[in-house]
Design a protein that fits this description.
The chain has eight helices and 13 strands. It is α/β, with parallel strands linked by helices. This is TIGR01459 family HAD-type hydrolase.
Length: 284
């Protein structure tokens, strides 16, 4: 399949769909404000019996993500539950009590170890690294951490990446995320554990929560993922065996100008295996 299907609205795609697994950043908000039509679309789908699980590479627990969503104007009624890469990272920390952690990330992400028996230490004394992001994502890139990552590799430290995203939107700009540092560390020969999309554990957790809401095990053929990243959302959905609606207004917006004019070869270069459908922005 190399042709692209452009959908007018979510309503065209959810016949027979029991569960929607929706990305957050780039789909329901841009980091500064919510997208009202997207929120309304998910709410409408829920009102007709569907279950919406938000899956996000946010390096914070679900309750912290919910507080941010409320500040940005995303109503609680938009979704049934949230699964974050931060939650999965916290499980890793909880399962390694007594080991010293070097935490790399901005102060706003300190909820990653809130309430856990986590011992933090300098890089020279740590047993592993948890990376939630750059210290200053407004001005820095992964290259600013090359020296640090070389030292970590010399000590053969495992880096736990709490956000596999390389970049996300913040308003009309793209900012670097933990995934950029993790990929650099992997290129340098370091060991990396990724939590979040496109990796399997976050989808398994989301499906378990959806099954609890629906009261039965969920058939993957009745699941639709929604996202704006080829690398995380589209790849993750495909590898997990579920369909994906791709939103083009997000981080790939410039690449997808004139998308309806693309020939099959260009489609394959952009997507690999194309999504079930595309929309510029999510709406009902």
């Amino acid at each position: 399949m190399t042709t692209l299907h452009f959908a007018e609205g979510l309503r065209e795609l959810v016949g027979g769909v029991d569960v929607v697994l929706s990305d957050i950043w780039g789909v329901v908000h841009n980091g500064l404000e919510s997208f009202p039509e997207a929120c309304e679309a998910l709410y409408t789908y829920r009102s007709r019996g569907g279950t919406v699980i938000l899956i996000t590479n946010a390096p914070r627990p679900a309750d912290s993500v919910q507080r941010q969503l409320r500040k940005l104007g995303v109503p609680d009624e938009t979704y049934d539950a949230i699964v974050s890469s931060g939650d999965l990272t916290r499980l890793y920390v909880a399962e390694h009590p007594g080991r010293k952690m070097f935490w790399l990330g901005p102060e706003r992400d300190n909820s990653i170890y809130r309430g856990l028996d986590a011992k933090t230490a300098p890089l020279e004394e740590a047993d592993y690294i948890v990376c939630t992001g750059l210290y200053d994502d407004e001005t820095e890139t992964a290259e600013d951490y090359r020296g640090m990552m070389l030292k970590a590799r010399e000590r053969k430290l495992t880096l736990v990446c709490a956000n596999p995203d390389i970049v996300v939107e913040r308003g009309d700009r793209l900012i670097y995320c933990a995934g950029a540092i993790a990929e650099l560390y992997r290129e340098l020969g370091g060991e990396v554990i990724f939590y979040g999309k496109p990796h399997r554990p976050i989808y398994e957790r989301a499906m378990a929560l959806a099954g609890e809401r629906q009261g039965h095990q969920i058939d993957r053929k009745k699941v639709l993922a929604i996202g704006d990243s080829v690398r995380t959302d589209l790849t993750g959905a495909r590898e997990f065996g579920i369909d994906c609606l791709f939103v083009t207004r997000g981080i790939h917006a410039e690449e997808f100008e004139g998308l309806d004019q693309l020939d099959p070869t260009s489609v394959m270069e952009l997507f690999g295996h194309p999504p079930k459908a595309l929309m510029r922005e999510l709406k009902w």
